[in-house]
């Protein structure tokens, strides 16, 4: 799960970043309205933690722009302004939740998980064929047996299992799993290596789903009902 923190207070931003990366989320940060706007123009996210009071703009206007453009990111407003009118406006604009400062980090994580479950239609995890992935416990099982995966391998599989039978561009995959720092890399060899290891582990475990390479484009997760 890829999260964007939009928060101008450095200490709180750092605390949230550390906690969420410890929870194995891919996390990026923006300290201003303009920085958040630029990141959202270039990247997609699963969840945005959005402060209202930014030094160069109102976070609610950013939310308004997201919904106008029919973006699919979940939005949790985090703000020291606990006024009823702010909550109502944020929720009416399309925010998924509202968390007033100060808050405990454990509650923030719980809110993120709750929003993610709602996006999945209340399902705890993802199941395709004989493979089940639980994003909260970070566990994968194949035919009921646990499949040990490295953190990046888990993120790659989670990304594919949310998009079965869809053609996945390697650049979009890299951005979602590694974050916007992928721009600093010279090649995608690290992506190829991680996918190669993941494909091997799935095959050895007897998984009936398969990540296939599509030459010149990227990859596609093939499910049992589409395999020939």
Write a concise keyword list for the protein shown above.
228 residues, alpha/beta, Arc Repressor Mutant, subunit A, five-stranded parallel β-sheet, four-stranded antiparallel β-sheet, 8 helices, 24% strand
Number of strands: 14
Sequence stretches where pLDDT stays below 50 over 5 or more residues: none
The structure class reads: alpha/beta
Q: In the CATH hierarchy, what is the superfamily of the largest domain?
A: Response regulator
Number of domains: 2
Helix and strand pattern: EHEHEEEHEHEHEEEEHEHHEE
What is the averaged pLDDT score?
88
- Estimate the strand proportion: 15-25%
Question: Radius of gyration from the CA trace?
Answer: 19 Å
Q: How is the biggest beta sheet arranged?
A: 5 strands, parallel
Strand order of the largest sheet: 2-1-3-6-7
The count of helical stretches stands at 8
Please identify, by name, the CATH architecture of the largest domain.
Answer: 3-Layer(aba) Sandwich
CATH topological fold name of the largest domain: Rossmann fold
End-to-end C-alpha gap: 31 Å
- Which class of the largest domain in CATH terms? Alpha Beta
Shape: elongated
Helix content: 40-55%
General description of the model:
The protein is of the alpha/beta class and 228 residues long. It folds into two domains: 2-119, Response regulator (Rossmann fold, 3-Layer(aba) Sandwich); 147-226, Winged helix-like DNA-binding domain superfamily/Winged helix DNA-binding domain (Arc Repressor Mutant, subunit A). Helix content is 41%, strand content 24%. The chain has eight helices and 14 strands. The protein has helices spanning 10-22, 33-42, 59-68, 84-93, 105-119, 151-161, 170-178, 189-204, and strands at residues 2-6, 26-30, 47-50, 53-54, 57-58, 74-79, 97-100, 126-128, 131-134, 139-142, 145-146, 167-169, 210-214, 218-222. The strands form four sheets. The chain has a five-stranded parallel β-sheet with strand order 2-1-3-6-7, with helices on both faces. A four-stranded antiparallel β-sheet has the order 8-9-10-11, covered by helices on one side. A three-stranded antiparallel β-sheet has the order 12-14-13. Strand 6, helix 4 and strand 7 form a beta-alpha-beta unit. It is elongated and about 55 Å long. The chain starts with a strand and ends in a 6-residue tail after the last strand. 28% of the residues are buried. The model has no long low-confidence stretch (mean pLDDT 88).
